[in-house]
Design a protein that fits this description.
The structure is a homodimer of 573-residue chains.
Chain A (H helix, E strand, L loop, with lengths): L8 H7 L3 H28 L4 H6 L3 H9 L7 E2 L2 H12 L7 H23 L11 H23 L9 H10 L6 H27 L4 H9 L1 H16 L26 H32 L6 H17 L6 E2 L1 H9 L6 H17 L8 H13 L4 H10 L1 H16 L2 H21 L3 E6 L6 E3 L11 E6 L5 H17 L5 E5 L8 H16 L3 E5 L3 H7 L4 H4 L4 E2 L2 H8 L6
Parallel strand pairs in A: 5-6, 6-7, 7-8
Antiparallel strand pairs in A: 1-2, 3-4, 3-5
Chain lengths: 573, 573
């Protein structure tokens, strides 16, 4: 067995590592580090944690992902939706700012790490597939709105409580008269600058005569620059004395070594949130990783990703961090900046470590409204109205899943919203497959094709009825076929043969097999023969393991045409 | 609109009613009445209720079913499994023999009636389809074992508590030394007689010179005859003074007019059991009804059956009864005895009413061990080991659902067992469809057929890969296809075209559509074109409502052969 990508991805890329790769990875790392500083502070605040926790969560997890991950460019760390879920999970159990709150965040990261690791080892990555696109889209849209509403209160200098959208909205309206004008001005100005920087900064810098590559890199530094400018003004004017809340003292030094809580009741209370955080983080991370890997004809391995994200979160848990996953924006930046290997992640971790060791005093005067503005701008791009429009056009069932998930997440909360959405989409799927399309078909004259008698001019016979089921047969739809057959038999006194065309049947489970036996038995008692045709290979293999085919009152035909030619040649004329 | 079977089934059969039909129905009614007397007493005892309640439950429900039901021969009344479920539901809430216990049984029947009626009006009959055959089979087998174990304690004259199989079994073993020999002798003797009567009575009577029809009718009266004989011996020897428990005084007279409890907390506690009883009763009843209707080329309408069973249970609730449904054995007897119309049910109800008014004193000396013996013999035929064997051979997933349902029902209880089985079979189905068979296919030389490259000698090309998915695409399996495509692309540097054969795809949901879009996007970025072929009509209709086909990097081909002929003609050589 070779040391291919199924062994250790690290060995694979470390072998071919050279000066060019190093230079690409270093450049990408510098850009991502600059982007990650305000993000990690902001997402820590969103999760209800002190700013240094965001930095801690951006060091060890990156190193561990570089060792275990199968994506070459995925950038892990704190992300918006997972931070919101962290705040929701702990919000009811402990008060923000307390030691207990932080310990729970550490515990949550640790548990989520264990769960992801276990899912990876047991190869349970497929479980994430039960989060449908409509549910994810609805969930992320609603989370983004929740996050934006929550940050609005910080920007406006208000102290509204609550994790539900409606609570937040009502609270904001009630306190509208108490808005802190200076905070609001700082926040709104930052939002405007950041939105402009996304589109306008690069062209402006290029027009000023800078090269396209440098302009791009500088434009990506716009968030950090605007934070620096706002911090500078705050320091000059000592705005904190006028009520502008600032980040304040951030402890300098290495991330601490921490352990999760050993209180069993806390583990019980955090188990469900940890599971949901794990699954959502995994889905987000894998879809980013797959999109970027495919652009270079590389691939990622979902079960390997589970292990890597598990290790990252365990890493976050033992170094004072909180739950992390692969982030969309920063991974795209890493990719665009030319990162070639996970070493870029290692360099980014070193960059953040340097900041943690040396630069935290520079963060003292950063206004909290500026961090909130960073979050608002980041999450607004997550609001996905396109999916609402496209699912409405494509499928009402999928549309209702999106709307239900958005509404429940906003009205009740992230956990119920997510689980409700998953449950609804499962039920809708089962409902759909439980009412399969069953067509009565007839022979298209002059051909060997059979088509729906309701839609085409076809030949039929009073002695023979042909049915086609457009779905695999399983317990939820087996009886529908029985009903249909009973109805056909009851209304056709001359009937002698019933042919079931199985071309669309990918699977027949034990319930459906019993139904077919019951149908055969009842038809036999009514003097009608039951025939099958166009059975697929795997279905046939399985049927041959039973006595069904040998007891069948009729025959099994390879093609429908052969069946009709043998049983009712008058149709052929 | 004519007065067809979709209007009122009663009008349909009442029109053609004549002397012959009357005579057939009357004969059948007498045989069923004789059979129903011991059964209704026994099942009332099984449900923990006084004997007359069993009689009450066999009057009004039969009349109401005759008015609303769509089966001509279904015989409703108390049945074993539903009686066990009734005992389990109420057992924890009230003490057997109390007025409160009886009121709860009445409430349960009333609630179950309302639920069935509602399901019928809302046309929710399809919900019962989610009870798979393996789950029903496992549940009924386990229930039969539970019932038999419970009756064994009555036969042995013991007083073991508990509704779980293990509790019962341990209790029986612990009290083995306290067995009441006379009760045990009566019970065992009755069991032997009843088992013999099933097979041996009819031939014996025929050998004694009786006609086959009369022999058959008399053989069916064997249970009643053995009860009468045992009661006679008990009276002669006054066995009740020696500790043999007897039925005792059964109140004479019309069924009482009763109302359900109006205590909201009782409704809450009984809601789930009532729902489970409704669904199990409905499934049992419909499958009996369908089997018998098909024999005469008649049919039953599931949603109409819901209304009829709902009315029957409401009827049971307001006349002092307990939950009822269509019973297998008595319906078959009714059918075999020649019942032509539901009037047979009306006559049976009158027969039971006569017994209730006049004959209850004759039941005084019936030993309880005899009734228990009747139940044991009836339920042992429900133990279904054939399904265990056949599902083992056919599908391990279905087999595990049977075993899980049996085990959970025995170890934890009927409600958890049933719901656990349903949940497990849903999860297994989703798991199965979430990992569809995806085959890479190639052209069979000299034909236009495409087959799995792993199983057949086929032509392929390094520039073109053809994939066939044997399952509808939906959220749970959409990413598997992405993974597969990524893997193919990563290992084939020369690839220019990817063709997806859609012949087995009956449906594509919004998640799968997004996956296809993501696949197309990634392939495009890797310089590969994505083509589709053999899309089914309804799937095509739906895809055309989106922009997917117009943005597709490749083409849509009617047949796979056309696709390959256009894209990689070298394969055709």
């Amino acid at each position: 067995m070779g040391l291919g990508p199924t062994r250790s991805p690290m060995i694979e890329w470390a072998r071919g590592y050279d000066r060019t790769t190093l230079s690409s990875d270093l450049t990408a790392a510098i850009i991502v580090t600059v982007m990650l500083i305000p993000q990690s502070l902001a997402y820590a605040a969103l999760a209800g944690l002190p700013p240094q926790v965001g930095l801690y969560a951006s060091i060890a997890p990156l190193l561990l992902y570089a060792v275990f991950g199968s994506s070459r460019v995925l950038a892990v760390g704190p992300v918006a939706v997972v931070s919101l879920m962290t705040a929701t999970a702990i919000g009811d159990l402990a008060r923000t700012g307390t030691e207990a709150y932080w310990t729970m965040a550490i515990t949550l990261a640790f548990m989520s790490g264990l769960m992801l690791l276990l899912m990876g080892v047991l190869r349970l990555g497929f479980l994430a597939n039960f989060l449908s696109h409509p549910v994810i889209s609805g969930f992320i849209t609603a989370s983004a709105l929740l996050i934006a509403a929550g940050q609005l209160k910080v920007i406006l200098g208000l102290t509204v409580e609550g994790h539900h959208f409606i609570e937040l909205a009502i609270g904001l309206l009630q306190q509208a008269s108490q808005v802190h004008p200076l905070s609001a001005a700082i926040g709104v100005a930052t939002i405007i600058i950041l939105i402009w920087a996304r589109r306008g900064a690069k062209p402006l810098l290029q027009r000023l005569g800078l090269g396209p590559k440098l302009s791009d890199a500088l434009a990506k530094a716009a968030p950090v620059a605007s934070i620096a400018v706002m911090a500078f003004f705050t320091w000059v004017n000592q705005w904190q004395d006028q009520g502008v809340r600032i980040v304040g003292a951030v402890p300098q030094g290495l991330p601490p070594f921490t352990l999760p809580s050993l209180d069993w009741s806390i583990w019980q209370q955090l188990a469900l949130p940890a599971l949901l955080i794990s699954v959502v983080g995994f889905v987000e991370s894998v879809s980013v990783g797959q999109t970027l890997a495919a652009k270079r004809r590389q691939r990622i391995m979902p079960n390997r990703e589970l292990v890597a994200l598990g290790a990252s979160n365990l890493g976050a848990g033992v170094t004072g961090g909180f739950p992390v996953t692969g982030g969309f924006a920063r991974s795209v930046v890493n990719f665009d900046a030319g990162a070639q290997t996970p070493a870029a992640g290692v360099f980014t971790a070193m960059g953040i470590l340097l900041v943690t060791l040396l630069l935290t005093p520079a963060l003292f005067y950063v206004p909290q409204a500026v961090l909130s503005a960073t979050i608002v701008v980041a999450v607004l791009s997550l609001v996905d109205l396109r999916t609402l429009r496209s699912t409405w056009a494509y499928s009402r069932a999928d549309f209702s899943a999106v709307v239900f998930t958005i509404f429940t997440t906003l009205a009740v909360g992230v956990e119920v919203g997510l689980m409700g959405g998953v449950l609804l989409s499962l039920l809708l799927h089962l409902y759909k497959t439980s009412r399969p399309h069953i067509a009565e078909v007839g022979l298209v004259p002059g051909t060997e094709y059979f088509r729906n008698v309701l839609r085409h001019q076809v030949h039929t016979s009073p002695y023979l009825t042909s049915l086609r089921v457009d779905e695999s047969l399983y317990f939820a739809n087996a009886r529908i076929l029985e009903d249909k057959v009973n109805a056909v038999v009851a209304e056709r006194p001359l009937l002698k043969h019933l042919v079931l065309q199985c071309s669309a049947i990918n699977n027949i489970d034990a319930s459906a097999l019993e139904s077919l036996e019951a149908i055969d038995q009842r038809l036999r008692e009514a003097g009608i023969k039951f025939h099958l045709c166009e059975i697929k290979g795997p279905v046939m293999d399985r049927l041959q393991r039973t006595g069904f085919l040998s007891h069948l009152s009729g025959e099994v035909y390879l093609t429908h045409y052969q069946a009709v030619a043998a049983l009712a040649p008058d149709i052929l004329d």
